Amino acid sequence: MELDAVSIEQKDQQDQLAHLRQHFSLPEGVIYLDGNSLGALPSNVSAVLQNAVEEQWGQSLIKGWNCHNWIDLPSRVGNRIAKLVGADEGTLICADSTSLNVFKVLATAIKLRPDRKVILSDTGNFPTDLYMAQGLKELVSDEIELRLVAPEDVEDALDETVAVMMITEVDYRTGRKHDMKALTQKAHSVGALALWDLCHSAGAFPVHLKEAKADFAVGCSYKYLNGGPGAPAFVYVAPKHQGSSGNPLTGWMGHNAPFAFDLGYAPSVKTDQMRVGTPQVLAMTALNAALDVFDHTTLEALQAKSIELSELFISEIQRRCPGLELASPTDPLKRGSQVSFSHEHGYPIMQALIDRGVIGDFRAPNIIRFGFAPLYLSFADVLKAAEIIEEVIAGNLWDKPQYHQKSKVT
């Protein structure tokens, strides 16, 4: 879809979601295409955090746990996220990190299927999920097997030996999207449980945990949910599993009565069983404020705009930069809200783009990624980004020593 600047301006004027951009603080001269790594700063967060620090903490001190209801932040924020991933109230809490939540849920799933020892995942899964499975194996039993197959082979690999299928819905490198409902149905047909990682899904497009009958889900809140760097993660437990806690991290906040201070551990029979320690009040307060923007739109509308933005981007890049190879599915319904290209010099290309105000990121060995957050991206942003990418590629502007020097974070 080749469009000129006038046509793009008209599209932005007709965009029903354009007003959402005002809810974010974005630096001048930057086209931010990395919301799939870290969301932009919602404009209401700074004032909310200032109040939480100076008024709630500063003035209320320890009373804040009751008078500001800090203690229930995991549930309150969790219920707001639940609406965005198709889950019922009371089935999802905000807690800890994605990695810790993966570990808790895998241990629970293995406990629920004691006669099975296989954790099935795919080679496109985010490495931390695999690392946590490996750590569980080393800690618990050498009998546990982490079985990895190609993403397209997951369905065929599901059999009666699998205890739990652990899949990230959207491949972090390519944006390839798994069919949650179909794979969960197949897992259940062979007696396996289904754990879904929603890090690249939540807040980007409609997710239907309840409809898909997922057993468990985890995810982070600092990408499309815009919760901020290091924002707390979330964990979902289907109602049928809430009375069967297998969480090995038996911290006091997962206790059925934490302030009874019993010497023995008695797990909560609700999703609170997945809580461990004291909630991160300031971080959850920031996340809670960040979620306000979702009250002004629907995930269906966000997905529709995401598809338009990404289709425009792909068309422009393929026309302008034939040396970049599309690494994402061509069908927009089979990818998340990101587009990836491969190039042997992907890292220096991305550094040159960042230096010119187009921020995406790089994933080894050769992937440059661009995330599309419809809450704050315009069609003009996409067209301008394509123009700058063309300049960098066509002029070999990436081939400078400073762009080849790798930073710790890529």
TrEMBL record:
<feature type="binding site">
    <location>
        <position position="252"/>
    </location>
    <ligand>
        <name>pyridoxal 5'-phosphate</name>
    </ligand>
</feature>
<dbReference type="GO" id="GO:0019441">
    <property type="term" value="P:L-tryptophan catabolic process to kynurenine"/>
</dbReference>
<dbReference type="GO" id="GO:0097053">
    <property type="term" value="P:L-kynurenine catabolic process"/>
</dbReference>
<dbReference type="GO" id="GO:0043420">
    <property type="term" value="P:anthranilate metabolic process"/>
</dbReference>
<feature type="binding site">
    <location>
        <position position="197"/>
    </location>
    <ligand>
        <name>pyridoxal 5'-phosphate</name>
    </ligand>
</feature>
<feature type="binding site">
    <location>
        <position position="200"/>
    </location>
    <ligand>
        <name>pyridoxal 5'-phosphate</name>
    </ligand>
</feature>
<feature type="modified residue" description="N6-(pyridoxal phosphate)lysine">
    <location>
        <position position="223"/>
    </location>
</feature>
<feature type="binding site">
    <location>
        <position position="278"/>
    </location>
    <ligand>
        <name>pyridoxal 5'-phosphate</name>
    </ligand>
</feature>
<keyword id="KW-0663">Pyridoxal phosphate</keyword>
<keyword id="KW-0662">Pyridine nucleotide biosynthesis</keyword>
<dbReference type="GO" id="GO:0030429">
    <property type="term" value="F:kynureninase activity"/>
</dbReference>
<dbReference type="Pfam" id="PF22580">
    <property type="entry name" value="KYNU_C"/>
</dbReference>
<dbReference type="InterPro" id="IPR010111">
    <property type="entry name" value="Kynureninase"/>
</dbReference>
<dbReference type="InterPro" id="IPR015421">
    <property type="entry name" value="PyrdxlP-dep_Trfase_major"/>
</dbReference>
<comment type="similarity">
    <text>Belongs to the kynureninase family.</text>
</comment>
<dbReference type="InterPro" id="IPR015424">
    <property type="entry name" value="PyrdxlP-dep_Trfase"/>
</dbReference>
<dbReference type="InterPro" id="IPR015422">
    <property type="entry name" value="PyrdxlP-dep_Trfase_small"/>
</dbReference>
<feature type="binding site">
    <location>
        <position position="222"/>
    </location>
    <ligand>
        <name>pyridoxal 5'-phosphate</name>
    </ligand>
</feature>
<protein>
    <recommendedName>
        <fullName>Kynureninase</fullName>
        <ecNumber>3.7.1.3</ecNumber>
    </recommendedName>
</protein>
<keyword id="KW-0378">Hydrolase</keyword>
<comment type="pathway">
    <text>Cofactor biosynthesis; NAD(+) biosynthesis; quinolinate from L-kynurenine: step 2/3.</text>
</comment>
<comment type="pathway">
    <text>Amino-acid degradation; L-kynurenine degradation; L-alanine and anthranilate from L-kynurenine: step 1/1.</text>
</comment>
<dbReference type="GO" id="GO:0030170">
    <property type="term" value="F:pyridoxal phosphate binding"/>
</dbReference>
<feature type="binding site">
    <location>
        <begin position="126"/>
        <end position="129"/>
    </location>
    <ligand>
        <name>pyridoxal 5'-phosphate</name>
    </ligand>
</feature>
<dbReference type="GO" id="GO:0009435">
    <property type="term" value="P:NAD+ biosynthetic process"/>
</dbReference>
<dbReference type="GO" id="GO:0019805">
    <property type="term" value="P:quinolinate biosynthetic process"/>
</dbReference>
<dbReference type="GO" id="GO:0005737">
    <property type="term" value="C:cytoplasm"/>
</dbReference>
<feature type="binding site">
    <location>
        <position position="168"/>
    </location>
    <ligand>
        <name>pyridoxal 5'-phosphate</name>
    </ligand>
</feature>
<comment type="function">
    <text>Catalyzes the cleavage of L-kynurenine (L-Kyn) and L-3-hydroxykynurenine (L-3OHKyn) into anthranilic acid (AA) and 3-hydroxyanthranilic acid (3-OHAA), respectively.</text>
</comment>
<feature type="binding site">
    <location>
        <position position="99"/>
    </location>
    <ligand>
        <name>pyridoxal 5'-phosphate</name>
    </ligand>
</feature>
<comment type="subunit">
    <text>Homodimer.</text>
</comment>
<feature type="binding site">
    <location>
        <position position="98"/>
    </location>
    <ligand>
        <name>pyridoxal 5'-phosphate</name>
    </ligand>
</feature>
